[in-house]
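> call design_seq(struct)
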């Protein structure tokens, strides 16, 4: 039996603790906040998108941040495994659009409570308000930790699962990076991922602030080379600074990795093209507009798009068409109709930057994967030190993939720390 310390009581830390305790180890979680699972509580808008229902072999494709590193972890602890865990703990699950898995209750608290219940069953000690100041290493082996309070705790193994830097209110403030650096690890540049985007066209976005769109298609394009950086279909939202929503958040993960992205953004060369009516090609959309026009042909053009767009979008879109809003609909020319179609099929916005990392769902960057054994999550630098979750330089798209990273790496770290001599 080993004494294993888990630093961090988030998703990966709790599952690592459960896994290690099931192997009959003495396990303690050190959590600097006053409760565990604070970030779980806000995932999926408070409903907790536990994982995704697609085949586990497809998860790497949805992990632009060093997905191949996770091959072993994903296969050792799959989406089916975590679903079964929660089902066995009384948390029934359901599949929603995009194959996202949620608790039937739509309550993230049920997920946290199930984890805490299992930890209690296994007699895992949780020490709250306990910030680790230093991982103590002797002869390149971990021997324990020193707390900010001055308390020293001995251990045979340590699993570092402190999260990244997104949503610092949940406790993710980058502490783990400093702890890892002090024992010899390097940190890949930390950036926001799955983060809303700011746009140069801020006034246009602000005029449509709060409008949520479903079933739109987007393309993110490098206008200098006409290369498509990312495309997607789903939901988005206009904000006072630009755009957000699932398809936008996922696009940010690709934009931040695009060559010379920061410079191109400064030059206004990264563009989002939004197809507001992807189910209709230009010809069919024009025919649809003609039918709508025929029904209200004697009214002003300001009434022309009522059936096509949310109310708050009508005035801004009309302004983009440069058609007089007081013009009678039956006087709108074919050329003007073509302008309407073009705008509805290609509403273009120039990206001016990313929102702050504090607003990101996930952190890109972290502990350099070259310094971690992908089969065990153990440090290649310090024996007995393991990593789990967002602290590692891996990140996925929206849809439950990032939580699966937490479950999979937490399990592998927990089982590896238990089995190693």
């Amino acid at each position: 039996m080993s004494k294993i310390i888990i630093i961090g009581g988030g998703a990966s830390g709790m599952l690592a603790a459960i896994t290690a305790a099931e192997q009959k180890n003495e396990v303690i979680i050190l959590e600097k906040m006053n409760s565990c699972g604070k970030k779980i509580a806000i995932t999926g808008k408070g409903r907790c998108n536990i994982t995704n229902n697609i085949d586990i072999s497809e998860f790497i494709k949805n992990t632009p941040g060093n997905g191949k590193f996770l091959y072993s972890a994903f296969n050792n602890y799959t989406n089916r495994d975590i679903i079964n865990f929660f089902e066995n703990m009384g948390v029934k699950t359901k599949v929603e659009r995009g194959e996202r898995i949620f608790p039937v209750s739509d309550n993230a608290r049920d997920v946290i409570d199930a984890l805490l219940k299992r930890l209690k069953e296994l007699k895992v000690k949780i020490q709250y308000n306990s910030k680790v100041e230093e991982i103590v290493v002797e002869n390149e082996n971990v021997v324990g930790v020193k707390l900010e309070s001055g308390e020293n705790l001995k251990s045979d193994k340590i699993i570092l699962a402190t999260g990244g830097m997104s949503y610092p209110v949940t406790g993710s403030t980058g502490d783990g990076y400093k702890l890892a650096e002090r024992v010899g690890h390097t940190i890949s540049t930390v950036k926001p991922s799955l983060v809303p985007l700011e746009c140069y066209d801020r006034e246009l976005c602000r005029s449509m602030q709060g409008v949520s769109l479903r079933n739109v298609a987007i393309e993110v394009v490098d206008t200098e080379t006409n290369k498509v950086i990312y495309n997607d279909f789903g939901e988005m939202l206009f904000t006072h600074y630009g755009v957000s929503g699932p398809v936008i958040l996922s696009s940010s993960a690709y934009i931040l990795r695009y060559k010379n992205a920061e410079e191109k953004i400064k030059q206004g060369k990264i563009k989002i093209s939004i197809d507001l009516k992807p189910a209709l090609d230009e010809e069919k959309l024009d025919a649809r507009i003609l039918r709508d026009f025929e029904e209200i042909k004697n009214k002003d053009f300001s009434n022309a798009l009522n059936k096509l767009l949310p109310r708050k979008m009508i005035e801004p879109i009309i302004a983009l068409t440069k058609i007089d809003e007081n013009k009678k609909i039956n006087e709108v020319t074919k050329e003007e109709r073509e302008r309407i179609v073009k705008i509805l099929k290609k509403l273009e916005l120039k990206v001016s930057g990313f929102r702050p990392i504090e607003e990101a769902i996930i952190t890109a960057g972290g502990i350099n994967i070259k310094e971690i054994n992908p089969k065990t999550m153990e440090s290649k630098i310090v024996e007995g030190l393991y990593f789990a979750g967002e602290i590692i330089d891996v990140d996925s798209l929206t849809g439950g993939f990032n939580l699966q990273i937490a479950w999979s790496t937490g399990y592998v770290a927990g089982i590896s720390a238990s089995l190693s001599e």
